[in-house]
Fold each of these.
Amino acid sequence: MKLQTHRAFNFNAGPSALPISVLEKAQAQLIDFRGTGMSVMELSHRSIAYEEVHNQAISSLKELLSIPDTYEVLFLQGGASLQFSMIPMNFLQIGKKAGYVMTGSWSEKAFSEAKLFGDVYHAASTKEGNYSRIPNIDDVQYHTGDAYLHLTSNNTIFGTQWKDFPETGDVPLIADMSSDILSKPIDVSKFALIYAGAQKNLGPSGVTVVIIRKDLLEQANTNIPTMLKYSTHAKNNSLYNTPPTFGIYMLGEVLNWAREIGGLTSIAEQNDKKAKLIYDVIDVSNGFYSGHAEPDSRSFMNITFTLKTKDLEKKFLEQAKQEGFIGVNGHRSIGGCRVSAYNAVPFEACKAFSEFMIQFQKDHN
Ligand SMILES: Cc1ncc(COP(=O)(O)O)c(C=O)c1O
């Protein structure tokens, strides 16, 4: 049976759109994966067939992100949210401090968790302007000898994104890249640890990717539960316990797709074009639509905006839904509108939405 050709214009913030070719391949392999007579979900995680899937996903990620050999790639569970706790548990040593750059709700959550473990401070914050921008790199304060500096590379809820990152020297830089990993090339060597829940650009929910510099593993606290130590997973190639095997298989297939469509440079070009379609409509709308993010902090993944009045906004969201645009409501904590244009959201979907925005303005001006 072939997948139905009806595909929604899916602008969900995560879990979000997956490439159709990946879904079709998963469907074709579902019952009998590579002649095993089983689906990937039914394979033992200790089998050769599964280990191939697992190791292939790790090497594809290393290749696509040009991850140096001095890093480990881990597949964990518990979402990006568990990383908010694992990071301080492992790396916030007694007598040291960690700085957190506050750029939105996810930074706040990461900060609150870290506070439970030790001495943390705001290295910078843009809360005063309702998180409408990323701080200037020069305004980020941290101290030599700090355990680490933490930031959120893309703020899924407020729609802002870092364009450059601070050079932190000996202070390990840690980034939550949940909502922009794989959207553009990055210099992994600037970071000591990168983490991301898979459910935006990488695959389905259930897998959390951690890219960690090996020397950091050696400096970690030891008095923490086995499952919450990065070193446990690093020593065991993320096979200490049963990993989320189907999610990792899907992640591997998403990475194959990313490679086939030209890798991160061409993905980034495409993402720029997609986001521009919508930002351009906002910019020429004479205030009919107003973008939440300051232009130089705009996210190319999550485009956030409001309309002139709450009534009009309500009507806009209702009409968008009727016309098949899914997930355009802003996050429940801040309202407004949000278009999440992750890697697998086709250009045509953004084009159709930008045309809808233009037409809606014409009809309501
Ligand atoms: C930037 C960011 N960090 C963390 C999270 C939380 O991720 P999870 O639901 O995987 O715990 C999200 C979820 O949307 C996010 O966008």
Amino acid sequence: MRALVLERQGELALRDIDLPTEPRAGELKIAIRTVGICGSDIHYYKHGRIGAYVVAAPMVLGHEAAGVVVGIGAGVSGFAIGDRVCMEPGIPDLTSRAAKLGRYNVDPAVRFWATPPVHGVLTPYVVHPAAFTYHLPDNVSFAEGAMVEPFAIGMQAAARAAIAPGDTAAVLGAGPIGIMTALAALSGGCARVIVADFSKEKLAIAARYDGIVPVDLRQVSMGEAVRRETGGWGVDLVFEASGHPDAFKGIFELIRPGGTVVLVGLPPGEVPVSIAAAIAREARIETVFRYANIFDRALALISAGKVDLKPLITGTFDFEDSVAAFERAAAGRPDDVKLQITVSD
Ligand SMILES: [Zn+2]
């Protein structure tokens, strides 16, 4: 089957590769319609690895996908040929201890699309467990369906934050995950979300949404911005969504006494933080690794019109132009948020 293959670091090819096409028991065969390009896809392309995950053999990229059911394996109920769906890319071992705790996203045995050695879904057909496949409501497009995966990370962050109605939050980083975390926080009850970045273009995109207060870090420090917006009290919640080591400096000084810091971005190495500043506020610290039990909630919000992710899709490419799409994503244009590839119409 034809697929976008990362041959090795820095080398992409649209070519034939052997992939499973027959659904086994509990699985669906899905014709892929739309796939979003993720920062992790770009990272594997540019660097050939993320932490301990190393691209040692050719790997199909892509994990943010929506499509149509075209085959149904034995024992599957609730799906019919022609159903429009999106898919959760991580498949845990459902008998594992982590899965039994409901924390299947941190099951050490989880197999995740386009994470070596597991192939991704930039290809016309995939097979996937029905248990991790979700119906798209009629008013949710394939493009929006392919946005559910990155949005689910923001949703997981909002859920971990345990937002109280009327909270003020701050998000560090206005990349796709930062903006989607801010949108999840607003739909979870935050009255205002301060979103900070060094990119004027990214902040302009974030600022289009009601409730988001953009902060340009080239003009004002985060501490100053938070003091100004909260009368010196501090925000109830901070979401760190940049993963940049500098963002952690003074992070606990941003929250009010008893506030919460939610760590979403993955820094490249160890970062120093002031434990004394955390203790002085009795800070609560939460961490987010992907998501669990979130896709259906994300779809419910999108379908209800509470969250509009469409403005974040800043470019759409044909499957045949996949390599060009990756070149553009790798260029990291400041006014790009999410690029998508239409695998089939
Ligand atoms: Zn992603």
